[in-house]
Amino acid sequence: MSVNPGTDPNHRPQPNAGRGPDVSSAHPDPDGATGPGLVLGLRQNLPQFVLLVAVNALVGGMLGQERTVVPLLGKDVFGLTGYTAGLAFILVFGLAKAATNYVAGTWMDRFGRKPVLVAGWLVAIPVPLLLIWAPTWGWVIAANVLLGISQGMTWSTTVVMKIDLVGPARRGLAMGFNEAAGYAAVAVTALATGFIAQAHGLRPAPFFLGIAYAALGVGLSTLAVKETRGHARLEAAGHVARADGRHDHLHGGLTNWQVFTQTSFREPALSAASQAGLVNNLNDGLAWGVFPILFAGAGLSVSSIGILAAIYPAVWGLGQLVTGGLSDRVGRKWMIASGMILQAVALAVIAVVDSFALWALAAALLGAGTAMVYPTLLAAIGDVAHPAWRARAVGAYRLWRDAGFAAGALLAGIVADALGVRAAVWVVAALTALSGIVVAVRMYETHHRPTAGSTPAVSRTGGSNG
């Protein structure tokens, strides 16, 4: 865990705490992002932070336009009967997003955050148009390749930009707001498209929302969002090692391969977070592609399916407003482990019940478990990764996490074709429980909380890092 100048590794105040020199002006940034008065902190950067929350809501809405309607398009419009073929759109989405997450981290360090964000929105523009006009399922697959690329660039960038702005003290809270905005928008859009499809058909009306989201996303990202790479460099300039020395070997510059191997396999907390992220999105891929088919098979209407499709991401999204900040106070490890176990229990309930009310309850439990895990995993990555290579670590983590979409689609499709839909849900429930156990055994607590009587971290220009 890094701390800002003004405290030593044991959090004892230093003589110039609260009035440190404005070193930002002494280290100009080629982006023009640094300069006199640049500070870290949520309160100090609130306008840009709120803007980025709004932008990520639009990113989530682009994903939400598919949650209810596209699985039903495959079944009712294109006549797909095999689960594996029907889930191909999630498979390609997951692969495209995972790969883009990884390279987006490198691009952000090389070119800056804002250019990657704008480019991601430009890639999103054709997606709703392809879904509206698709004459074959192959067009839907192509749309989801573009959607995956776009999501990998835009969502990754908003995550890193918020981490840049707030500094170490409020990292969990920042991730809670980021993920809450994105997944609340997924829920609202899934619900809205369900009702629109019930009234006007599966195409084209539900995808008009996506056209509006893309236009707003391009406009805000181009005209209003500011570059934040300078904030990361500001934090890196004052980065102080943990008192326990745990991350001493990870300070300074690492190659891309070293960042990837530390995040994926070698560093215990980073690698435990990466596998938990993969399994979390594995069960999300199941929920996206299989749950609408399971509910339709029970005779539920499209609007009812839309409600169930919205409950899970709604609880997930709104719950992160609480869980992100809570992890700053109680720590990361046990929130992640218990959240994975709660998800496993919810999936088991979905596999055995057969009514709207019980499915709604289980979807809410699944959302609650995911809310405990999602922002906390990102905060844990931010705790361990040095600011100099944090964007690449986030990219590597998100590569594994969003590969879970592809793994979930493939696994669920194969098991469902062989043994039925409910068997697929059981298999994913078991894997989710196992992932929680891995976190409990392998991960250490990453959030180095201040000791009693310590002073708040301060920005490079003075003031509390709130």
Automatic annotation (TrEMBL):
Residues 1-30 are annotated as: Disordered. Keywords: Cell membrane, Membrane, Transmembrane, Transmembrane helix, Transport. The chain crosses the membrane at residues 83-104, 116-133, 139-160, 180-199, 205-225, 334-353, 359-382, 425-444. SUPFAM superfamilies: MFS general substrate transporter. Signal peptide: none annotated. It is a multi-pass membrane protein. InterPro entries: MFS, MFS_dom, MFS_trans_sf, MFS_Transporters, Sugar_transporter_CS. It is found in: Cell membrane. It holds the Pfam family MFS_1. Its main location: membrane. Residues 49-447 form the Major facilitator superfamily (MFS) profile domain. PANTHER family: INTEGRAL MEMBRANE TRANSPORT PROTEIN, RESISTANCE PROTEIN MDTM, PUTATIVE-RELATED-RELATED. This is MFS transporter.
